[in-house]
Amino acid sequence: GLTGIPKHIARLRNLEKLDLSNNRLISLPPELFELSNLKELNLTGNRIVRIGNDIGNLVQLEVLIAPGNQIKDISENIGTLPRLRKLVLFRNRLSTLPASISKLGTLEEIDLASNLFSEIPAALTVMGNLRSLSLRNNRLTEFPAGLIDWFGLLE
Questions:
Q1: What is the mean pLDDT of residues 41-52?
Q2: What order of strands is seen across the sheet that includes strand 86-88?
Q3: DSSP for 99-154?
Q4: pTM above 0.85, yes or no
Q5: Other C-beta atoms within 10 Å of 112: how many?
Q6: Pseudo-torsion of CA 79, 85, 88, 93, nearest 10°?
Q7: Which of 33, 35, 48, 126 has the fewest CB atoms nearer than 10 Å to its CB?
Q8: Strands 109-111 and 132-134
Q9: Number of C-beta neighbours around residue 69 at 10 A
Q10: Strand partners, 1
């Protein structure tokens, strides 16, 4: 599998979908974030440890799929993606999410299963368009009252 991405990938200006799954990528080069028309990015099964600041450059991004990596940290810049609908990050090493994720009004689906969350991130409780949330196989010990209110289960 790939251990790096060729710099000339930036020439693919009209690229809308990029699948880099099942390689040996540790990080993502700046050139990847020049793909300004990218709508779907699949990074499944690599060795990526961080989603950095450059993620904010992918303003057309609707789907980010990155399960089976070693992601511990996501930049606050993820909150600047105005079209992001689906975020799939199961089987990583996340224990927290950036607060800016609450700004993603278009986000409908988040899969955070099999990470290291010991509590449900507060940012998720203010996401009105969220339709699917998976937190299975984490370290959760209680269901916060605020989340029950969010689901409209209490009067």
A1: 97
A2: 17-19, 40-42, 63-65, 86-88, 109-111, 132-134
A3: GGGGG-TT--EEE--SS--SS--GGGGG-TT--EEE--SS------HHHHHHTT--
A4: yes
A5: 25
A6: 10
A7: 126
A8: parallel
A9: 23
A10: none
